[in-house]
Amino acid sequence: MAYEKEHKDLLNLSNQNLKEVPKSILKNLKLRELNLSNNQLTELPDFITELKYLEVLNLRGNNFTNVPELLLQFKYLKTLSLSENQFKIIPETLKALTNLKEFDFGANPLVEFPQWIDTLYALKDLGIFNLKLKQVPEVVTRIKYLEVLSLDGNQLESLPENFANLRYLKELWAADNCFEYLPENFGKLHQLEKINFGNGQLKCLPESIGELRRLDWLSVDENKLQELPSTIGLLHSLTFLDISYNKITSFPSSFFRLHRESLEIWFNGNLYTEETKVLLKNAFPGIDEDDLEEEDPESEEYKHLEDTFGTGLNNSGASELDAIGSETSSGFSTLALFIGGIIFLGIIVFFTVVLRKKDPIIEAHNEAVEAYNEVVTSYEQHRDNILKNNKTILVYTNDTTLLEAYISPNIDVYKNPYAPSYNNIQSKTDALIELLNDKSLGYQVVLDNGRVRLIQGYFYDSVFPPGTMKKYRLLADYKMSDKEKGHKKKNIAKYPYMESIKKTDTVFNTEGAVLSHEELVNRKMNSGIHRLMAPLIDLDNEEYHFYFSPYDNNYSKQEFLEAIEDFKVMFLKEHKKRDLGRLQEIAIKIN
Question: Would you state the pLDDT for residue 341?
Answer without folding.
Answer: 67
